[in-house]
Structure formats: C-alpha cells, structure tokens
C-alpha cells in the first residue's frame, strides 16, 4: 500500500502527523506500507502550528491512496483549506489525479478540498462537525460516522480522526492483524463508528 499525504500551508498538524505516524509505524513493522508527503507545487509547507514540512515530488500515479488533510476551515479564517479552495490549484490537481485504482481519502475538513474538486457529489462522506453544512451544500451525502468508506472515497471527521482513518486503511489493505499490531504498538484503539459501503471490502 503506497500512501501519499498531500501537504499545504495552514493544514492542521494532527491531520498530517497522525496518519503519517500510523503509516510510518506500519512501514517499519514490515507490513507492506509506504508513506510519503507530497504537494503539487513541490514547495515546502508549514502547518497551522508552525511545523515545516518538505514534500517529495507530486506523483499521484505512484500512489494507491492519496490522503488530503484539513485545517483552518472550521474557524472561518482564509487560511489552510479555504485558501487552497480560493486558489484552485490543489483542487484541480486532485481532480486530475483520479483514476480507477486510486483511493482518495480526507481527514476532517480535507473533505472540502475533495468537494471543491467535484469528488464528493452524491457520495457518502463526513467531515468536521462545523463543516457538515458546507459539505452537504457541495453535494456530499453526510454520514454521521468517524470514518466513512465508500470504496474509492474514504473520509474521516474530527480533529484526531487521522489516526482512525490510517488504521482503517491499514486494516482494509493489509488486514485486521496488521491494524491490530499497529494499534498495540501505539497503545491506541481505533475509534468507531466505521461506515462501509458495498465497495469497501478488506484486501488481504
């Protein structure tokens, strides 16, 4: 499982660090997981909390999963997700990345970036509770769950939901034993509920 996490200025620290920590631990445990940070611009990015990140080149064709973090949207500030939506280049890059064997995933308000790319219309999805109205207005079908897996679209709602998203992806692609191993190593249990559509089977 090759996972690329998209980075941009003003993203929430936990939305990036949470999934990266889970997937990095899975990689070090030899569970067949690779994770990297990436950005269409190729430029360094700084999180909302001031953490500088240096992404690798944008190559979504090399990914099995593309994770989009959120950040700043629920506060109403014109930073993070809102700034990227206004700029338009990241949503356009996400729309161009779509292909049949790519899973697009989001943490918290990252779902609004997928919405801006036209990728949630008519699809079950979730986001931060303060952004649900905007997600629905953009065409998404809100599901009240921690993680919503609709096959090639997986979304998670809540500030710490990146941990749960990443653990579910490990289970979906590498099985429950792999996910359980990472959870025990992290001393963290994945939060529920998980909503799964018909196309969200576990790969062994």
UniProtKB/TrEMBL annotation:
Chain coiled-coil ranges: none
Domain DJ-1/PfpI: 1-171
InterPro entries hit by this protein: Class_I_gatase-like (IPR029062), DJ-1/PfpI (IPR002818), INH-QAR (IPR052158)
Protein's recorded name: Glutamine amidotransferase
Keywords linked to the UniProt accession: Glutamine amidotransferase
One Pfam match: DJ-1_PfpI
Keyword Membrane in record: no
């Amino acid at each position: 499982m090759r996972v690329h996490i998209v980075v941009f200025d003003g993203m929430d620290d936990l939305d990036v660090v949470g999934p990266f920590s889970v997937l990095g631990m899975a990689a070090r445990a030899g569970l067949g997981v690779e994770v990297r940070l990436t950005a269409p611009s190729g430029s360094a990015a700084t999180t909302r909390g001031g953490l500088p990140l240096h992404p690798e080149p944008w190559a979504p064709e090399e990914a099995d999963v593309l994770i989009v973090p959120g950040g700043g949207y629920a506060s109403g500030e014109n930073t993070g997700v809102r700034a990227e939506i206004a700029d338009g280049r990241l949503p356009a890059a996400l729309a161009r990345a779509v292909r049949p064997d790519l899973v697009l995933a989001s943490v918290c308000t990252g779902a609004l970036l997928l919405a801006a790319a036209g990728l949630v219309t008519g699809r079950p999805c979730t986001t931060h509770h303060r952004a649900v109205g905007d997600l629905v207005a953009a065409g998404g079908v809100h599901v009240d769950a921690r993680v919503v897996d609709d096959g090639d679209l997986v979304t998670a709602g809540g500030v710490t939901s990146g941990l749960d998203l990443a653990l579910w992806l490990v289970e979906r692609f590498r099985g429950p034993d792999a996910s359980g191993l990472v959870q025990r190593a992290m001393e963290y249990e994945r939060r529920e509920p998980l909503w799964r559509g018909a196309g969200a089977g576990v790969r062994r």
